[in-house]
Write a structure and sequence with these properties.
The structure is a single chain. By secondary structure, the chain is mainly alpha-helical. It has 2 domains: 51 residues, no CATH class; 64 residues, Recoverin, domain 1, CATH 1.10.238. The chain contains 6 helices and 6 strands. A hairpin with a 2-residue loop joins strand 4 and strand 5. The termini are far apart.
Length: 135
C-alpha cells in the first residue's frame, strides 16, 4: 500500500506520506527509519529490505512473549522454573501430567529446575542441554 507507484520499492516520500499523515511520526524520525531500511543506499526501500525488517520485528516480539511466559512461571523471580513454581501456577497437574514430570521433561541441565535458555530450547525442540551438549 505504501508503494504508490507500484515499482516494488518505497521512496522516502511514500514512507513520509504514511508515517507522518497516518501515525504522526516526525519527519526527522521518518528519515531515520527510511535510511535504516535502505540497506543498499539507493534512496529506495526494496521489498526484501522491508521484509527483513518485518521478520526481525516478529522475532523480537516472539522473544518478548517467551520472556513474559517464562517470568509468569518463575513465580519467585529466581531465574528458574521449579516444580514449586509450576504448582503455584498450574496446580498439581496439567492436562493429566504431574508438574514434577513437566519439569523433568524440560530440565535440560538435570538439576530439578528449568533455566530460561533451557525453556527456550525445549519449546523450540532443541535436543541440547543448557550448555549446548546433546541431551
Amino acid at each position: 500500500a505504501m508503494d504508490v507507484n507500484h515499482h516494488g520499492t518505497i521512496t522516502l516520500q511514500e514512507l513520509k506520506q504514511v508515517l507522518e499523515d497516518k501515525f504522526h511520526v516526525p519527519e526527522n524520525e521518518t528519515r531515520q527509519i527510511f535510511y535504516a531500511l535502505d540497506s543498499n543506499h539507493d534512496e529506495e526501500i526494496h521489498y526484501s529490505d522491508f521484509l527483513a525488517a518485518m521478520i526481525n520485528t516478529r522475532i523480537a516480539l516472539h522473544d518478548d512473549i517467551l520472556k513474559q511466559t517464562f517470568k509468569r512461571f518463575d513465580t519467585h523471580n529466581s531465574g528458574y522454573i521449579t516444580v514449586e513454581n509450576l504448582r503455584e501456577v498450574l496446580g498439581n497437574t496439567f492436562e493429566g501430567e504431574k508438574v514434577e514430570a513437566l519439569v523433568a521433561e524440560a530440565d535440560r541441565a538435570k538439576d530439578g529446575r528449568i533455566s530460561y535458555p533451557g525453556f527456550v530450547a525445549y519449546l523450540h525442540g532443541d535436543p541440547t542441554d543448557d550448555h549446548g551438549v546433546a541431551a
